[in-house]
Specification:
Blueprint: H1 3-25, H2 28-33, H3 42-67, H4 73-95, H5 104-128, H6 136-144
Helix pairs in contact: 3-4, 4-5
Length: 145
């Protein structure tokens, strides 16, 4: 096992256990009991913005590979999970009318984000996972392994 494998493994475990499970699955009351502030602080928005920036960098690598005729399957899966999960969260919150009292522009941004993340998820599933989207050279390499 090389050093990069160790660093990536630590990053995955730490992020999944501490942040993904905590922030996605724990109820708000428990998060507050743990000492986290209610999400009105700009810190969480800045962290979210940084996570989005990291996704954009990954998508740029995927776009570059696709433009060269490759098939960035890893990036496709990242996009499906990211956009599909965001779409589901937005859909639930839209149904619950969480943002109905927000300003008009913010509401439009949320509904537009719901539509776009849903469309991107569907697009990635049908264009990124379909057998016809994988270049012939990649199919032959996968068949040989």
């Amino acid at each position: 096992m090389n050093s990069l494998t160790i660093v990536l493994g630590i990053k995955i475990v730490f992020t999944a256990l501490l942040w993904c499970i905590l922030l996605l699955l724990f109820p708000e009351s428990l998060l507050i009991q743990l000492g986290l502030p209610e999400p009105s602080t700009m810190l969480f928005l800045r962290l979210l913005g940084m996570a989005y920036l990291a996704l954009v960098v990954g998508y740029c690598f995927g776009l570059s590979e696709s433009l060269k005729g490759g098939h960035p399957l890893n990036i496709v899966w990242v996009g499906i999970i990211s956009n599909g999960g965001a779409c589901l969260i937005l859909l639930i919150n839209g149904i619950l009318k969480i943002w109905q009292d927000w300003g008009l522009l913010a509401q439009v941004m949320m509904w537009l984000s719901l539509a776009v993340t849903g469309g991107i998820t569907i697009g990635l599933i049908f264009t990124g996972l379909s057998d016809s989207s994988v270049p012939d050279s990649k199919k032959s390499n996968e068949a040989g392994s």
